[in-house]
Amino acid sequence: NSRGAASLLKDSIPFTDISASGLFEGHDLLRRGFTSVKNELLPSHPLELTEKNFQLNQDKTNFATLRNIQGIHAPLKLQMEFRAVKQVQRLPFLHSSNMAMDILRGNDECIGFEDILNDPSQSEVMGEPHMMMEHKLGLL
């Protein structure tokens, strides 16, 4: 018989449908972490996703325009500069204004919402510098 033993068991349950922890098992907190209802919600407005991905869409449009005008080297060079700027960070307990990224994107002369209401002196998230560095380095 070329079909094998699987053809004889017509009422069997495929193994992929049953998880290792059981068919009626709930959410495994240790393996999957806490559930977040926020991640499972659909956008409440059609423009919400567009607004959330505005900077990414604007970068893609700018790269496409730059490629059409100057060639492939210009957006590649700009993307390398973006990656280099993202890698350079301050210590975790110091506020960073990301001025280099603003200059690369052309936002250094614009005043936005985050410029006025993102004052680090009014921040509630200020920790002990030594503890934050040890956490970043994985010593804790």
From TrEMBL:
Pfam family, one: UMP1
GO cellular component, one term: nucleus
Keywords tagged on the record: Chaperone
InterPro entries tied to this protein: Ump1
GO biological process, one term: proteasome assembly
The keyword Chaperone is assigned to this record: yes
Coiled coil region boundaries: none
Family designation: Belongs to the POMP/UMP1 family.
Name of this protein: POMP protein
Gene this chain is encoded by: Pomp
